[in-house]
Known about the structure:
A: 9 strands, 47% strand, B: mainly beta, 7-stranded mixed beta sheet, 4-stranded antiparallel beta sheet, globular
Amino acid sequence: SYELTQPPSVSVSPGQTASITCSGDKLGDKYACWYQQKPGQSPVVVIYQDKKRPSGIPERFSGFNSGNTATLTISGTQAMDEADYYCQTWDSSSYVFGTGTKVTVL
Amino acid sequence: QVQLQESGPGLVKPSQTLSLTCSVSGDSISSSSDYWSWIRQPAGKGLEWIGRVYPSGSTNYNPSLKSRVTISVDTSKNQFSLKLNSVTAADTAVYYCARDYSGTQDPWGQGILVTVSS
């Protein structure tokens, strides 16, 4: 079965850039999306179709997908961005979620 | 604005069937061109996609759960449902429903905790 691997944790200082990777075989040939989940809340999509931002998502969130890796970048990270982030793609008629990354804003 | 709300028993006995319903407001399932998904998340763990249903009744399932899952739609009630049979403690999780479009799930319901225990 298809697997998506993310680093368990990423730490970033306020105002700096956080990059979260999502690795999967030939992931760049598929669409990837990213979800943000804060404690006790439902996930919210922050990037879909590799790089599109839904209405209401700040411009500091951006996405890129090529080769075997999709990347979510948070520029000018704010304390409110501290959350778990999950990537997702579609493979063989099934969605697959990444393992998840906890972003800590120090 | 589309809103989704999960409902159903919060406690299910081992070996029995977990049954949940997702009520959709702000959009008509029957006239939408979107799929409707179920996802779950055990406490402290990651997300697992369970499956989805199209308004016509067509479905896709996670291969790891396919033998135990049935997702159906009731367009007259603007709802879709999840049945997971032969449950064990490993099926204890928060279950979410969500609209599925453009290769993503958005929005999600608030989630419902289902505990499998005797």
